[in-house]
Every structure is written in C-alpha cells, then in structure tokens.
Amino acid sequence: MKLFMVSLGCDKNLVDSERMLSLLADHGFELTDDENEAEVAVVNTCCFIDEAKKESIDQIFELANLKKTARLRVLVAAGCMAQRYRDEILQEIPEIDAIVGTTGLDGIADAVDAALRGQKNAHISDISKDPPLRPGRRVLTTGGHFAYLKIAEGCDKHCTYCAIPSFRGAYRSFPMEDLITEAEEIASRGVRELILVAQETTLYGTDLTGRPILHELLKRLCRIEGIEWIRILYCYPEDIYPELIDVMASEPKICHYLDLPIQSGSDSVLKRMNRHTTSDEIRRLVGRLRERMPDIVLRTTLITGFPGETEEEADETLAFVRDMKFDRLGVFMYSREEGTPAAQMKPQLTKAVKKRRMDAIMSLQQGISLEKNIGRKGMELDVFVEGSLPEEDGLVYAGRGYGDAPQVDGFIFFTALREHVTGDFVRVRVTEASAYDLRGEEIGS
C-alpha cells in the first residue's frame, strides 16, 4: 500500500516526519512522492503563525479532494495543528480519518491501520506527561548529505507571543546516548553535515543534569567519523555560556555560525515579549563571539508590529540592526495567536504598519548583507556542493559555505575545474558578490 507524506513548517517538524516515515515503512507501507498514487496520505502540520495554519489547512483540503478523484482512502493530520485544534478538525473536516498529536507520533502506524479498517481515531496524548517521539531510524528527505539532529522537544520560555509550549510541552532533552547513536547511524549513510535543532538548542541537558551540556554533546559529535560540518541553530542569546563558545572556537568541525533569535532591538518591547535579555546584553554577547571567532557568521530573526510597538520602539530596533550588522537576518510580522498573553495586549497594530516596519528593516539589512558579502571577495572557502546548474555554460555548481544554512541562507555559485557530486567539498575563491549570494571559482590543487 502506497503512502504519501507532506511535512510543513520547521526543520524540527521535518525530523518528526522522517521518523514517522521510517515507522510506516517498517510497518509495510511503500513510500511515494506522487499523491495521485497514494492510498494513505499524512500531513505533518504547522500552526506557528497564521500563514502556517492556512498552508496546513490548504494542504489538507487539496489532499481531501483526492478521495473523490484518485486512489486515496485514508487522510491523516499529524503534528502541531492536529494537537492544538483536534476538536475543530474533527468537527469541520470530515475527510480527516485520523489525528496524531505531537506526543502521539509513535502511534502513527496504529492510527493508519485503524483508519483503514474504517475506524476514525485520534492519538492525542498528554504533552505534560507523555514523552515525544525519541531519536531513532529515519527516512532522510534532505538529499542524504546533510541532516538535522533534533536534540530536544518543547520549550519553557513562554514568550508572550508564542503558543508553542501549549502544543509541544515543556523543554525535554533527548538522552545523549540516543543522539550519538542516531548521529552515527546518519553518518554511516553518507551524511557529512549535521545541523542541531530544537526550540532552543542552548539549554540542552539542563533538565537532565541541572546544567547545560550542549558543549559536551558537541565534543562527542565531533568524534563521529564521516561528519565534516556541525551547525547549531536556535541559540537564545541569554543562554549562550562560556564553555559552549570555547568548544565552538576550538573544534574544527563546528561551523563558526550561530542563529540567535532576538526578536527586537527595543528593551521595552523585549520586556513585553517576556524575552529574558536586553539589547545591551545582546551587544556584549555578539562582541564576545566576534572576538573569539572573528570569522563567525551570525543570523537573527525579528518580529515587527508587536502589540503596542511605537514608532520610537521600531526606530530603536532599526538602529540596533544598523549597529549590529548581522550577517543574516529574517523578519516576521507579528501574528496574533489565540491563547497567548500578547493576543490580549493593546493596541494591536495594523498589517500595513507591520509590513512598513518589516520592509524598512529588510531594506536596511539588504545593504548590510551586500557590504558583508563584498568584504568576502577574494576569500577562499570550503564549499559544500548542493547541485549543478546545467543551464549555465561549462561546469557551474551551487553550494554553501560554513556561513550558509540550508533553506534559509544564500548560495555560492562557482565554476568548477572538474565534475562534482552533491555532498562534495570544494575549495572556492570568491570573485563576485550580491546581497544574498556569492560567485566564485574552484581553486586547483
């Protein structure tokens, strides 16, 4: 029986999808990338912001139509939106045959079996008690040369704009031995870049040992044969600690790259967001990181139009971005999420105001990014090959440097001296720069 899966939202969700695919494959399902061939379809949903909810709902309805026109017999909604809106989904989308919540994913095969027998069912467990799906075998969907390693589930931060703790639960680190076993198995399949993810990676181990032990996990991951790059995402600035910086600076396999979600450069907005840091503390942290690793690439994210954000506060964030000169920066417009404290704050700003402020930040950042990239001209970088560009004359490839995370950052396009395959590392000299991408040429040995 053929099964089709759609994974929406973040890379943490993707890891869950890959584990579910493995469980279903072990249960006898044949995986297909053609929804018209599938008898079972699973949508691993997202509901982080309104746009993510809409995408999840649109995808569900698109697949639901296949029950009338194709072979589809069973449609399953899994993950975040399924957990958060179980009752509404059951009531309003009768085409859904099973619902599997965020801590019920290990029951995906049982849920599908029951649905095939005509029994509608919901595997929604208690996120405050039941463990998440533990590390284990996965069907890698990232091309086989890089993979995400999810090191923890849930979040304890309780930012006033975010509903994630309500459907993902409290912060729970996965046991280190499980993660090492998973990473070794992934490496044995040819993965060369490992990307650590969680709602917050920086706090790894605090719930297990009473102290952060991300640096210890990193040391052990660095010893795994076959892994060449290790990248760390989602590091909250207030929880970056000296031992972590030391390990990043000293271990050659760890990319000098950090993702620091700061959300605002205004202290008054940060306080209303219940963020546990200030703009001055972020400045000092960035200074320490750049001092220890002068080549470090820093990425951040911001939210514009948070409830009550004044023009003065928006200007403070703009000035902060101008001063900090982050290498990479993304911006979200504030999304009003029901059940969160921020949803009740006043005034709620208009979409036009949010977009104007977002555009101002992105326009400023475009100039900063261009300046940063121009400064990289003449540099020699190890580039991770992502694929070729057959439409170009000669051997032209797209790749990523240590400062480029997949899906969110840019590419280095380079002319090669010989043929390469995805996953190769090639030494490239940067010759041209734009705001988001670089061009270069392979350096001969």
Characterise the protein shown here:
With 445 residues, this protein is α/β, with parallel strands linked by helices. Helix content is 35%, strand content 22%. The protein has 15 helices and 19 strands. Strands 2-1-3-4-5-6 form a 6-stranded parallel sheet, with helices on both faces. A hairpin with a 4-residue loop joins strand 18 and strand 19. Helix 14 packs parallel to helix 15. The model has no long low-confidence stretch (mean pLDDT 92).
Strand order in the largest sheet? 2-1-3-4-5-6
Main beta sheet, described?
6 strands, parallel
- Roughly how many Å is the radius of gyration? 22 Å
Count every helix, treating DSSP H or I runs of 4 or more residues as helices.
15
Structural class: alpha/beta
Quaternary structure of the protein: single chain
In round numbers, the mean pLDDT is 92
Terminal Cα span: 51 Å
Q: How many DSSP E strands?
A: 19
Query: How helical, in percent, are the residues?
Result: 25-40%
Beta-strand content: 15-25%
Overall morphology: globular
Summarize the structure.
The chain is of the alpha/beta class and about 450 residues long. It is built from 15 helices and 19 strands.
